[in-house]
Specification:
The protein is mostly helical. The protein has one domain. Helices cover about 70% and strands about 0% of the residues. The chain has 4 helices and no strands.
């Protein structure tokens, strides 16, 4: 896997890692997949962030499709208005008014 160089200044941080994970990391470096631990960790974090973002975007798209947000034009304001209308209706019904 090719490493990409960034012109941004990098910040240091420290972490603790299990011996098993560190051994896997070292195997990746020794096998030539990554030039060093830092590059391997950066690649892993970048992939994790990308995968998480894609998963969240997929969930949001599925939610939007399932609640009709795209086809019906429902947005946060319309949802809030609908909730308030329902509460008004319920209050009138329960209050006998």
């Amino acid at each position: 896997m090719a490493a990409t160089r960034s012109s941004e200044r990098k910040q240091s941080f420290s972490t603790r890692i299990s011996p098993e994970t560190l051994a896997m990391l070292d195997r990746l470096v020794r096998s030539g997949h990554y030039p060093n631990r830092t590059v391997a960790i950066e690649a892993a974090v970048a992939q994790l962030a990308s995968d998480t973002e894609e998963r969240l975007e997929g969930r949001q798209a599925a939610f939007n499709a399932s609640c009709g947000a795209l086809s019906l034009g429902i947005d946060a304001n319309r949802m809030r208005e609908a909730r308030l209308e329902r509460l008004d209706w319920l209050g009138e019904r329960l209050g006998g008014g």
